[in-house]
Amino acid sequence: MVSLLLAAGASTRMKSKYPKVIHPLCGKPMIQWVLDAVSEVTNNVCVVVGHQAERVKEVLPDGVEVAYQLEQLGTAHAVMSAREFLDPSDDVLILYGDMPLVRGETLKRVIQDHRSKDCDVTLVSIESPDPTGYGRIIRDGQGRFVKIVEEFDASEQERKIKEINTGVYVFKGKKLLEVLPKIKCDNKKKEYYLTDAVGLLEKVNVHKEEEVEDFSGINNRVQLAEAEKIQRMRILRKLMLEGVTIIDPATTYIDSDVKIGKDTVVHPMTFIEGKTIIGEDCIIGPMTRIVDCVIEDSVSIVRSECVGAHIMSGVSVGPFSRLREGTVLHSKVKIGNFVEVKNSKIGSNTKAQHLTYLGDSEIGENVNVGAGTITCNFDGKKKNQTVIENDVFIGSNTALVAPVKIKKGAFVAAGSTITEEVPEWSLAIARARQENKLNWVLRKKEKEEG
Ligand code: UD1
Ligand code: MG
Questions:
Q1: Per-residue pLDDT reduced to its tens digit, 143-167
Q2: pTM exceeding 0.85
Q3: Looking at the domain covering 343-450, what would its CATH class be?
Q4: Residues 6+ apart with CB under 8 A from 33
Q5: N- or C-end of the chain: fewer Cβ atoms within 10 A?
Q6: CA 85 to centroid of ligand 1, rounded, Å
Q7: Domain ranges of the chain
Q8: Distance 165 CA to ligand 2 centre (A)
Q9: Assigned architecture for domain 2-221
């Protein structure tokens, strides 16, 4: 089996600067969804590109062949552009790059039907409540297939037919190669129609599919949003059936490559994106965005944004925390409200609970980072590192001017601005000493009142 994906059209109805098939759906280019479905039936795939070919090529994975259709003269012409790729001794599955809801299991069913009937071509039809724009399936009095009529060429009567051509076909390679050169452009659109190939073949099988959704084509952004919703619900449904609790699917957005373990609960208004992996028994959300993170078991992340972080088991994050690229939190770390962490490794049981910035730092275990602690990592030219060893106590409102090291067990007094290394088990106070002027207020009052 080989497969051809047609994706050369200009797709004007998207009103986009970019080719339609690269628009993302649940975090993946539209055409990638089709490629993923096709990969369940063959690894021998060729995409026909034309309009903005290079942009489409950019999103294609390695191993996918490309054929160029320089002028878009119709669906048969597109197939003709890829004839080098066709194998006369093999079947060819043809479909479009703008059908992101098609599933591997559905394609398998179509192919199985084709093979069981030994016909020249199997075309997939569906019953559509709104057939406008599609080619109609014309049948005779006995219900036998007669031909496909394009909307443009259809009569008033024919336009009432609700059974439509989805544009998905399985051809015998040899038969397709035989009829392709015979197709003419004698229709109203002056295009070479692939549907005419069906007309020229003898043994035609119409596979009428019940899974109507799978064959929705995306032509504009309204359909894009509808498809996104369907795809999103499929992803959530799969996760739920695998043991993830999703409190409110209507407000939960999870990309297709995300993995989540059993008994994790995802609360409303939560976005989990990219290549994120989440373990078991976690609490995620509400109101949380997670992108490309690795999260181990029993982690809680509430009302926070985490991008590119590795979060180990038992950690709690939020509410209102921001974890950025290169953050590694070891087990049972606590990151609390209004704490930002970037490119920092934080050891087990360490706590930074309030109003803190930890950037380019290495922090040991059992450290207490007081409220309002700031690593001053940027000197105006470059980023510098802060090292805090195990069992350190950093008092509130401390500025750690990097590069700087606080050694094991040290204690930094609140309000300090630390510019030099603090030795082990020592106290560092770096602030003006307090002076109390006794009865100063009373004396001031007396003076004022005269
Ligand atoms: C086609 C079918 C129609 C079917 C419908 C289903 C034909 C003649 N008609 O019509 O029976 O109901 O699909 O969606 O085939 N493409 C190219 N090169 C071209 C023309 C098109 O690569 O020269 C690609 C497009 O990018 C698109 C797909 O083929 O992905 C379908 O083309 P389109 O022009 O939308 O065909 P329809 O008129 O919708
Ligand atoms: Mg179309």
A1: 999 999 999 999 999 999 999 999 9
A2: yes
A3: mainly beta
A4: 25, 100, 101, 102, 231
A5: C
A6: 20
A7: 2-221, 343-450
A8: 11
A9: Alpha-Beta Complex (3.90)
